[in-house]
Structure formats: C-alpha cells, structure tokens
Design a protein that fits this description.
This protein is mostly helical and 496 residues long. It is built from 23 helices and 4 strands. It starts with 9 loop residues before the first helix and ends in a 7-residue tail after the last helix.
C-alpha cells in the first residue's frame, strides 16, 4: 500500500508517464524515478493550458478541412510537451462526444477542441456551463432546434445521462426521471448560435411558464437527488429566461445519490479512474475506491478537475496496473486507445508523419487518419454521443490487423530524416548478443517487464545465434527492423 509520499521505482515511473502521456521515453522515466507519487503528479499537472486549436478549418465548404484538422491535432499530440493536457483533452472529447458528421462545421469542432483544452483541469461546473453554450454541442444535440412550442429533449437527456449524473448511481438506483428531462429541456429553449461565433438567447423562443401553464412549474428532482418532495425550482433565484441554463447546472451539481453522496463527483471520478487506470470492480468495492479519491481531492465540493486527477495519480488503484510483471489474472491492465498506440509509438521511435496528408513513409503509405479509422478511432468522429467504447471493444480481428499494418509501415519507412525509421539512432549498434539486443528494444518500447520468459525466448530465437553485426545494413534492415515490428505487434504492447 502506498500514498502520495511513496517513491516511484522505474516501473511505476514508466507506468505514470505512459498513462498520463503518449509513451515513456527512457530519459523521462529516469527523471521521474525516485520522485514521490505526489511530487510527480504535481509536476505533470503544473501547466497552463495552451491556446492551441487544430488548424485548417478556415473555409466552411472545404471538404478537406476535417482531414487537416484531424492531422493538426495528431501532430500536436506528437510534439507537445504538455502530454497530460492532451490526454485530458482526449478524455473530454470522448466524454462530451460530438462528431463533425452531424455538426457539419469544422470551425466549431475546432473551437470546441480549444474549449476542452481551456477547461481540461479546471472547474467542472464552469466547464459544463461553458459546454452548454458551445456551438458544436448546441448543433449536435439540437439546442438550436429547441423552441418553446415544442421543446427538444436531446440535450437535457444527455446532460444528465452522459455528462453529469449517469443513468444510475454506483449502487444501481436511477438518478432522474423522464419528467426531469422534460422540464430541463424548457430551460434550454430559445438558445442559438451566431457566426461571430457567440451563443445568444432569443427571448421570443423561450418557454415561459405563463405561456404554457399546462406544462406545470419548472421544478426538477421531486423523486430523485434527495431534494425532498418539493424538488428544486430552476427559475430561482434569478427568475425565468437566460439564467435558467446555469441554474439547472447548479442544481444538478447538488444532486445526491442513494448513498447520499454527490452524484456528479462520483460519476466523473469513476470515469476518470477507469480512463487513467483500468476498469473498476463491482459495487460496493467500486464506491470505496471512488469515494476515496473524491474525499481526498475535495472534488465533491470544489469540482476542481486538477485536484481530482492528482488524487487518482497517487492512489494505489492507479498503480495496480503498473506492476512490473507480465499481464495475468492478478495484474489488471487496460487496452491502449488507437490514438495512444499510434502517437506513443511515433514518439518512442522519434518519427513523424509526412506531408499535409500525414502519411507513414513506408509499407502501404496510408494516411494516419485512414489507419486510425481502421483501428476504430477517428478524431472528431466519435461514433455517437456515447463516445467510443473502451477496453476490449478496441480489439477485433480487423482492428488488430490495422495495428499490425501500422507497425509494418513504420519499420518499412526508409530514407533519411524524421519521416523514416532509424533504429541505429535508437539502440547501441555495438550490441552483438541476441539477448542484449532484445532487451535494448523492449526497454526502449517499455515492455521488458511485461513480457513472459517464453515471449522473450521467442524474440531471441527470431534473431538467431550470436554474435550479430548490427553495423551491417542488411542484417539491421532484416533482423533489427523485424524485431521492432514483432514487439510493436505483441499483445503486451497493446496494453498499459
């Protein structure tokens, strides 16, 4: 058992950097080894969010704008020093999942991406209020089509189901009723988005109680949230009109579940725990882990995302998956997201995608966007408002073949420059013994302690009997490149 004062060994440092960023280069691992969990987390969280937003979205009618925005974000992930920032932006992109297929405006999607970066470790209540008025969200979940005569319930439903409360709490009890959706939809009526871009409120399209007396009072959570039979009136204290959407959020953030715990805090903490670590156990063990990080971080009162993430990164649950032993029944692991697999590999191999199309300069010469799509993840195109399915959902015969194809293309990239694979710059070519060469490659890729003895033996056998002359181009081109490919395609490399 450990806490924020526990020192990181090499394996734990590698795990921390791999989960909070894309890959864990040996120099970075060495710099973090010996730090306490708390000091390491503080160092990672000590950043001012960048103002970056994906480029290439200037013209609305440009059919290649989304393609360029996608590539712009991927390239930023590869090069930025703010690795935890981008891991958080990726999480929020999945949590507040919008896709450009429906939004149809690359500029708004780019602005939303910048918004996620601005709030990625900030106050979650303020974050949700900002998302309420985000142009891409207003388009995707039909706020712009929510009129007083016929209120649209889409955003009111997903605001509760996916963004703040969850359908059910940790014990399995429902968090809201259909009537709560109906009433909250009224609060969002009359909002639209202009081309400046800026959200604005149209008073003439808003649902006022005097205009629709048959719809009842604007009251929510009379049967859920532990507000009592009277529930809460979201027109108070500011009255009806534009202020209602913020008042709704204030009430939601006071919601308590069947265990009398803050529902929003538990819901977000559980999701972030699973994102950074691995799937949580069943209730009530799940509740114990979640409540621990919420209590220590004060998230249930402050809703400070950074404070919550810090507590996750010092918790034993997070480090369970980083134990320096191969994957097995007692070592929980998490499947790398496709974007994580791609970006971390490029960073470790010190490679870059080439050209405006961001293609890998070898093998099939496919664009990264196409390769990621084949792996099951295309940025700016989550499959639905539910985002992507995680863990084993990333794994299928087709998506694994796509990962293997990506590894093949990388080791096939020949020539000079950063667009090509240069193993001679990654490991010591003076090594001659197969066991030493295998260890150098698996150390570089961060999986030495995740491979079984049998797997190591097979890799050594692949190289053949020593000594091996890595200075010989043909030997290096055939054997060393092939060894890198095998490790990149191994089951261990697909996991955290």
């Amino acid at each position: 058992m450990g806490d924020q004062n526990t020192s990181l060994d090499e394996s734990s440092a590698r795990h921390l950097l791999r989960r909070t960023g894309f890959g864990a280069p040996a120099a970075n691992v060495a710099a973090f080894t010996g730090l306490t969990r708390g000091a390491a987390a503080d160092q990672l969280l000590n950043f001012t969010p960048a103002k970056f937003k994906p480029r290439g979205v200037a013209r609305y009618d440009d059919s290649r704008a989304e393609f360029r925005a996608h590539n712009s974000w991927v390239k930023y992930m590869i090069t930025t020093k703010l690795q935890l920032q981008e891991k958080l932006v990726l999480f929020w992109h999945d949590h507040f999942a919008n896709n450009n297929d429906k939004v149809g405006d690359h500029s708004r999607m780019s602005d939303q991406n910048k918004l996620f970066r601005q709030f990625c470790k900030g106050n979650f209540k303020d974050f949700v209020k900002a998302v309420n008025k985000d142009g891409a969200m207003m388009e995707f979940l039909d706020t712009v089509r929510n009129f007083k005569d016929e209120p649209n319930e889409n955003y009111a439903r997903e605001l509760q189901e996916l963004f703040t409360l969850g359908v059910k709490d940790l014990s399995g009890s429902p968090n809201y009723a259909q009537e709560d959706i109906v009433q909250i939809a009224r609060a969002f009526s009359g909002w639209a988005w202009d081309n400046k871009p800026k959200a604005h409120f149209n008073d003439y399209d808003h649902d006022y109680a005097t205009d629709f007396p048959g719809r009842g009072a604007k009251v929510i959570y009379q049967t859920h949230g532990q507000f009592g039979a009277a529930g809460r009136d979201f027109t108070q204290p500011a009255g009806e009109g534009a202020a209602e959407i913020d008042q709704v959020i204030d009430i939601i953030f006071q919601h308590r579940d069947s265990d009398a715990k803050n529902t929003v805090a538990r819901y977000i903490a559980a999701k972030l725990l699973e994102y950074f670590a691995h799937p949580l156990p069943a209730y009530p063990a799940k509740a114990s882990i979640v409540d621990g990080v919420v209590s220590r971080s004060g998230f249930g009162a402050s809703f400070d995302i950074g404070a919550l993430v810090r507590e996750i990164l010092v918790d034993d649950f997070f480090y369970e998956t980083g134990v320096g032993v191969p994957f097995g029944p007692t070592t929980p692991k998490s499947v790398k997201w496709p974007i994580d697999y791609v970006v971390s590999t490029l960073r470790l191999l010190k490679m870059r995608p080439k050209g405006g199309d961001a293609y890998i300069n070898g093998g099939s010469y496919h664009a990264l966007q196409d390769q990621l799509k084949a792996m099951g993840q295309q940025l700016f195109e989550p499959p639905s408002v539910f985002g992507w399915n995680w863990e084993l959902s990333w794994m299928s015969s087709a998506t694994l073949l796509a990962r293997c194809g990506f590894a093949r293309d990388l080791i096939s990239a020949r020539g000079s420059g950063r667009f090509n694979f240069h193993p001679e710059k990654l490991i010591d070519l003076g090594l001659t013994q197969p066991t030493d060469i295998v260890q150098a490659v698996t150390d570089l890729l961060g999986v030495t302690d995740q491979l079984t003895a049998t797997e190591i033996t097979k890799l050594v056998e692949y190289l053949g009997a020593g000594p091996i002359d890595l200075h010989d181009y043909d030997t290096r081109n055939r054997k060393l490149n092939g060894l890198f490919g095998l490790v990149l395609q191994s089951p261990a490399y697909q996991l955290h």
